[in-house]
């Protein structure tokens, strides 16, 4: 009886099938299982945030990995809300969007910058590419509701400016003229975290929110950047409830 021979083509075929199966398993893990894991951690962060706000501490500076605010993006639906945690390392971002430690806090002049995953691990920033000029991004802290509006996006034929004050519109023609509502850059571009984004040493006169995420999807090759400007800071009133929520939360896509 002749011994069967295994050809090189057969070997390569088996290797490709194995590699394909591994890639499918990895994609499942990234897109599904990490979402489940992050969902549980995000729930814990939300619970910790509620507990902290009900029993406020004298020291309000958050510790690494600790939730300190909530983010709402009405254009993504009334169920879009994420607790924001302090820090941007892998463990922090598994819990939810994370603040770059060297940046400002919500409602402060300067740059409040937040990183988040786009695929898997909760994928809080999966839809950033669909944001449009003047879309609202609302950040809730223990003491205030801070509303930001996405700045004009390059390529818009007639970008809206009516969501900004006349003074802010003037600044978009001056010291903030280079700050775009959305652009793509390289992973190492830390200038987007400057108090006036991408203008090192400049003194900020406005509150800016910067969101960063990977681009394109399933890749770390580049970064998508969203910049928005603060348009309202509504202090919370002791004992009040939903009647103090900003009107921007009722907007829809």
UniProtKB/TrEMBL annotation:
Domain of life: Bacteria
Record-given protein name: Housekeeping sortase
Residue ranges crossing the lipid bilayer per the database entry: 12-33
Keyword Transmembrane: yes
Species this chain originates from: Corynebacterium stationis
Catalytic site: 117, 214
Keywords: Hydrolase, Membrane, Transmembrane, Transmembrane helix
InterPro entries, per the entry: Sortase (IPR005754), Sortase_Class_E (IPR053465), Sortase_dom-sf (IPR023365), Sortase_E (IPR042003)
Family matches, as NCBIfam families: class_E_sortase (NF033747)
A single MF term (Gene Ontology): hydrolase activity
Pfam annotation, one family: Sortase
